[in-house]
Hints:
By secondary structure, chain A is an alpha/beta fold. Chain A contains 21 helices and 6 strands. A 6-stranded mixed sheet of chain A has the order 3-2-1-4-5-6, with helices on both faces.
Amino acid sequence: MLGVLTGFVDELRAVGISVSMVEAIDAARGLEHIDLASRVALKAVLGSTLVKNARHYTAFEAAFETYFSLSGPAAGSAEDDARSEMARSMVAGSIGAGGGGAGDGDSAEDLIDALLAALRDRDDALLQAVVRAAVDRMAGIEAGRPVGGAYYLYRVVRRLELDQVGVELGAMAAADAVSPLQRRLANEEVARQLERVREMVRSEIRRRLVADRGPRAVSRTLRRPLVEDIDLVSATRNEIVEVERIVHPMSRRLATRLSQRRRMGTRGRLDVRRTMRASLSTGGVPVDPRFRRPRPGKPEIVLLGDISGSVATFARFTMQIVFAISAQFSRVRSFAFIDGIDEVTGFFGPGVDFAAAMSRIGAEAEVVWLDGHSDYGNAFAAFGGRFLEDAVTKQTTVIVTGDARSNYHDPNVDALRDIARNARALFWLNPESHRYWDTGDSIMGLYAPWCDEVSEVRNLRQLERFVERVAIPTTRPMRPLA
Amino acid sequence: MTDTPTDIAALLEEHGYLPDERIAQVVFLAERLDKPVLVEGPAGVGKTELAKALAAVHGRRLIRLQCYEGLDEAKALYEWNYRKQLLRIQSDEKADWSEMAEDIFSEDFLLTRPLLEAIRSAEPVVLLIDEVDRVEMETEALLLEVLSDFQVSIPELGTITASSRPMVLLTSNNTRELSEALKRRCLFLHIGYPTIERETAILLAKVPELSGGLAESVARIVASIRSEPVRKPPSVSESLDWARTLLALGIDRIDETTVTDTLHVLLKYQADVEKVATSLTKT
Lengths: 482, 283
């Protein structure tokens, strides 16, 4: 067991969950107290000792399923009431009949019927049997092929016609639902059932893959980065959805932390009046000195976001986070550019859908000047001409987001220099890996001398860290001499 | 001491708390390993209730430390009673100082706060450190000595070690990330919104006058509202309130009008109420 445990801990660390030595020992000690045959107990022990962040729990679950899947179904399907026994033999019978030679056209139908019956009567044992038979016959798992389970899952779900099953179940449920509310509840119930079937198929496939290739190899093909480590520029649509889900809670946490720290900080000056008042209860001895609360100034933010093509997602999340914690700043103004530039502050309001707002910006704001390819030089020059005096003062922190790929246009470094000189500080966030800067049409190196700091920011973790630093400046950044 | 997680689950249920399997397992493990449990989850899912139920199960006293921003050791651990000390000094001005110092730094002048109280208690207690995410990072460090060694160091008196190990629960609403040091010392338990089945059971246990059918539809509608993008999704405490409201109004079947009329019990923001009202009645 200890060997399995260390392997499992290694796997968690490989995913990016930090597990300390002490926690691994706790897990090992915990295992002594439980019945190792019980998966629930095992999962509770490992989950509560090794994973200390709710956000990492899905990653933990995936790893757990691969490492401890073999003992699973045997324990799970040990119930044997008469009805399900009958049902199981029914499925077994249909397998025999279907496998006889007629091809699997009609046997798929049998399975679909059985699946419908199982879902309708909520017969878990039958459902389990159906899923197992379906994976047997439909997934076409080939031994030794180094693939993840997603493809097999897709095959089974498609051939089980799960969508059609959903429609039929929905129709059955809707028959006695009269009001929209009841219909809605019925539909949600069906969606939950289908998700459950999908989950069962997924774990059945995983179980077989593990039996074939061993947990280590399988989890390597299944491994995915934690949400906060997803590369924002190359993220898939599904990943973006995941990121969206945590951006809001994350920025709320950030805001709380910032406002706490802002209020604490160093203590202010002695408050003589309140100290005197407090000393009255101790006979005039000032035992408990009182201090004024310090009120550090809040920075003013101007965001310049490149919203062309692939870096648009990144600009969007930056704007979203900065907007969500805008109470931490005295003022936030956002500008979007491609080769032209326009103010977009008004597009964001409380409760706005940021994805929709970004597409509105693309349509309505004058961010395109000539050909719709990024032109940093022209965008900065346009900003300097139209907004600089009004938006940027000595209290303003300017944040530029973009990959500095200017399509070989004139970089116009002077325009950026003017912005930097007028501002309190200028930060540049580049969502591209440091290695690719100054290759091809990237002119990061030309702009860098005028920025107080150029940071590679590719995922939420780095973005959060950066925003925190801007919001609570430790020292005034150094200005380069002109 | 209970023998299996199932026993704990049964005992908790007797005292009005319905745990799911994971909660029972983690509580069982915490008892065996003598470790604090860090309970995290949205507001109103019964984190504090769990501590209360545990105290009731073991017949122990519940000592609660409510955390807030600005909590310091004087409020969490102990404080010298300055006023009393001053009085003592003033009442006997000719006394020898070294004798006096010994006297005024004795236990008579010590004001115990929840953490010290939990450790000094003769019988074992349940210590609940509520909303630990509200204190500052620096204050968190204060808890570490208590949580790992169950002892408190007072410079004038020396180290006070627990005569009986308290069972410790910390709760957090996850408004900020807690320090690694604190997390390392605890078992972690995330309590999310319950499944429909469990919520139905909770409703029936807490509001016994409710009929089974009504409880289930309450649970299903609440689950449906939780899937909407609202600012503050309704929690278990809100669905309990809603069930009681429906009872008081004498409603035994829920339809669109009853939902929209009583939505403000479930949702605390007007924008949320409007959003859900339109989406629930949409055909």
